[in-house]
Design goal:
Oligomer: single chain
Strand order of the largest sheet: 3-2-1-4-5-6-7-8
Bound molecules: NADP nicotinamide-adenine-dinucleotide phosphate
Radius of gyration: 17 Å
Mean pLDDT: 96
CATH topology: Rossmann fold
Number of helices: 12
Number of domains: 1
Largest sheet: 8 strands, mixed
Low-confidence stretches: 1-5
CATH architecture: 3-Layer(aba) Sandwich
Shape: globular
Order of helices and strands: HEHEHEHEHHEHEHHHEEHH
Helix content: 40-55%
Length: 268
């Protein structure tokens, strides 16, 4: 049984998509650092149990558990946020999907936009009280260098033909833009928000896009896990990183478009 008194001495890190290639490696890397509790936010209970067992075995850290949530559903995200009471110090938004055909969620939103963009946005906003209670706290948005093609007038591919590569690139551009929009708003709460490219890793997500991936999950997790635990992730905000180096992000520099996207997401 976990010792809840001593748990309060540990920083709480939440990692989404931690049954996947990069997310599991991020959760492991954080669990291997001293002083962290890690909660995996996953949709599949069987895979989540397995991931928790593997991370505890490999890290030797018993403070790893999971919560079940569908990150394409606002209702499910708000429910998990209500279950996660108390300070949150680190939120790693990482879960994403690249379905080959256009699909919609039960709430009627195109699935890739709902999961990859609104999932990050809703979860961060739903956890504002917990992040502020954990301040100094940080949000790490796992994005990509493979980003672009945004159409602010057709975020859900209702007018354009759906293509999973275009929808994915748009979603990763949006992650980088919303990092800036949220960083502006969360700074006063003592919460930083940064985005990064992880590594190129073979996974369901990358295979669906027709990519193999030449890096191990551990290498792919290095930059997000570093932003989650190193002092840099607390000192910097609204920044974009690749290979643990800050990079200029033209998407984040277009303030008008950043605010327009933020407002569009608020409407969901
Ligand atoms: N792989 C690469 O080369 C690469 C390159 C650049 C950026 N990235 C970014 O890295 C991140 C992780 O990608 P990955 O390659 O590790 O992908 P992955 O192995 O396919 O993992 C995706 C994760 O997201 C979870 N997920 C998807 N939809 C969900 C939902 N509705 N609710 C809850 N969880 C959901 C999956 O859960 P299940 O296990 O239940 O399916 C899985 O845990 C993504 O943000 C991606 O854009 C990856």
């Amino acid at each position: 049984m976990q010792d809840m008194t001593r748990d309060q001495d540990h920083r709480l890190a939440l990692v989404t998509g931690a049954t996947g290639a990069i997310g599991k490696a991020i959760a492991l890397a954080i669990a291997q650092q001293p002083g962290y509790r890690v909660v995996l936010l996953c949709r599949n209970p069987r895979k989540a149990d397995q991931a928790v067992r593997e991370i505890i075995d490999e890290s030797g850290n018993p403070r790893v558990s999971h919560e079940i949530v569908d990150l394409s559903s606002r209702q499910s995200i708000e429910a998990v946020a209500r279950r996660l009471q108390g300070p949150v110090h680190v939120l790693v938004n990482n879960a994403a999907i690249t379905p080959r055909r256009r699909q919609e969620t039960s709430e009627g939103i195109e699935l890739q936009f709902a999961t990859n963009v609104l999932g990050y946005f809703w979860l961060t906003r739903a956890l504002l009280d917990q992040l502020s209670a954990g301040a100094p706290a940080r949000v790490v948005n796992v994005a990509s260098y493979w980003a672009g093609d945004m159409d602010l007038d057709d975020l859900e591919f209702k007018r354009r033909p759906y293509n999973n590569n275009t929808a994915y690139r748009q979603s990763k551009q949006a992650n980088r833009m919303l990092t800036v929009a949220l960083a502006r708003r969360l700074g006063d709460l003592g919460v930083t928000v940064n985005a990064c490219h992880p590594g190129d890793v073979s996974s369901n997500l990358s295979n669906n896009l027709g990519f193999g991936g030449h890096e191990s999950p551990r290498d792919g997790a290095r930059t997000p896990a570093w932003l989650a635990t190193d002092a840099t992730g607390q000192q910097e905000t609204a920044k974009y990183f690749e290979h643990m180096q800050m990079r200029r992000c033209p998407f984040g520099e277009d303030s008008e478009k950043v605010e327009a996207l933020y407002q569009a997401c608020l409407a969901y």
